[in-house]
Amino acid sequence: MNIQRKYSLPNCTLLLEGLSDVTRAAHFQEMRPELSILVNAECYLSGYNQPLTGGREFFESLVRAVSGYAQEFLSSVPNPQAHNQESELVEFQKVDSNRHRLIIHSEGAPEGFEHSNNSKRPPIEIDLNTVQLFDLVEAVDQFFADTQTLPELSLELQPVTRHYGGASQALIRQAVPAAVGVSTLAVAAIAFNLIPPPQIRPPQPKADQQTSSTTKSITPPASAAATPIVAATPTPTPTASAKPAVKDLEALLNTVSEITDPSQLRALNRQVYNQIHPAWTNRSGLQQDLIYRLGVAADGAIVGYKAVNKEANLGVGQTPLPNLLYNSANRAPISNEPIAQFRVVFTTQSVLEVSPWRGYASTPDVVGAKITDSNIVKGLNQKLYSTVRQTWSGTPTFTRDLKYRVAVNKDGVIADYEPLNQVAFDYFRETPLPKMFNAIYGSNVAAPNDKEPLAHFQVIFKPNGKLEVTPWEGYQ
């Protein structure tokens, strides 16, 4: 039986195809059989139409090169394992701080990739940015965490000797940078050549703040490197001033189920944006985009975050994330609740981007009961148009259409609204929608009214002053 394994990240997907060795299988009727014989490996990278493909030798070389280069990148200590072109099919070369060249030495190359002219058998050369690199590392992490795929393949890393660069004591004292998972944690430890690892004295808690012996304060000084993986966990005796404590976000995700329903993800996506957007007050000074992976409970509480790129690890103090992590004094403890994952980007253009970590498996729908009677919807459409038209005044400064989903109850009272494009986020104050919503609920970020059936419409504010209101047909 042909078996496939897929490890997906936003910018990288590893697809492994193979067979199960029935002579070794303990249970022939396993729900998820073991892939023990690799037939084909494919690596899909964002920005490239064709995947990198090969067999067992290619995949093992890719894993070794990725791990070796991650070790080098995290520690700033040169690692020959990442550049062994004499015995490896795959190697990496650093181009600059945000470009990393992946080189595949092979007989042929698929179309769409750049070829070097310095070899009789031209290698494939692909330039990855740091985000793509860490997504590739994360995909390798997912593979190593999967005990049902090539279980005999282990990550064999050797400590980098001082001969290859000699990391300074200052570097060793730095926190391990971002995007560390199953294999990259081992990579980072070996990169620093710490056997056994140093004993780091945690900061002493204040007298009025108790923490468990396995946790430490998550609030870093603005100048300090952030903890790579942060999640909230209740303190033994929470008080009004209690702070969340650190716990491995990966460990949390391994113990609870994941929210994957597209409609629920869409609703949570808005809640995450509405929490972070107003709290991100200082948006200047970013030299690189800061990218994070967030864990979010079903009620929208941010229960953990993990820096995805190095800049995010160092710059977490420039974001509101440490202050938005849920406080166990104000909320029931996280136990076995399902968790949704989101990708949050603080861009150098001062734009906040929030999206589901794995994307939407299908087109999301609006959560809650809906008014579907065509005559009622038609009447509410006209009423909403009149209300918005009468309250929308002034000369627009935007140059593109502002698109929103607006929901009203059976009386035509606004119950919810949602920007549908980035310009609608940026210029929402030029519309009457936030004032209408705030007048009813007392807050522009209040939870939408979902206690009764609602009629949904798409409302478009045009730069020329025209207004369009049409019945909702779903997300595009």
Ends apart, CA distance between termini: 38 Å
What proportion strand?
15-25%
Quantity of strands, as a count: 17
Largest sheet, order of strands side by side?
Answer: 9-11-10-12-13
Series of H and E elements: EEEEHEEEEHHHEHHEEHHEEHEEHHEE
Level of helix content?
Answer: 10-25%
Query: How would a crystallographer describe the biggest sheet?
Result: 5 strands, antiparallel
Account of the protein in words:
It is a single chain. The chain is of the alpha+beta class and about 475 residues long. It is built from 11 helices and 17 strands. Mean pLDDT is about 75; it is low at about 25-30, about 105-110, about 115-120, about 160-230 and about 235-245.
Task: Detail the topology: elements first, then pairings.
Elements: E1 3-9, E2 12-19, E3 37-45, E4 52-54, H1 56-75, E5 90-96, E6 99-104, E7 114-115, E8 124-129, H2 130-145, H3 169-172, H4 182-191, E9 229-231, H5 249-255, H6 262-279, E10 290-297, E11 302-307, H7 310-314, H8 321-324, E12 339-346, E13 352-356, H9 374-391, E14 402-408, E15 414-419, H10 422-426, H11 433-441, E16 455-461, E17 467-471
Antiparallel strand pairs: 1-2, 2-3, 3-4, 5-6, 6-8, 7-8, 9-11, 10-11, 10-12, 12-13, 14-15, 14-16, 16-17
Properties at a glance:
17 strands; 5-stranded antiparallel β-sheet; 476 residues; 11 helices; 4-stranded antiparallel β-sheet; alpha+beta
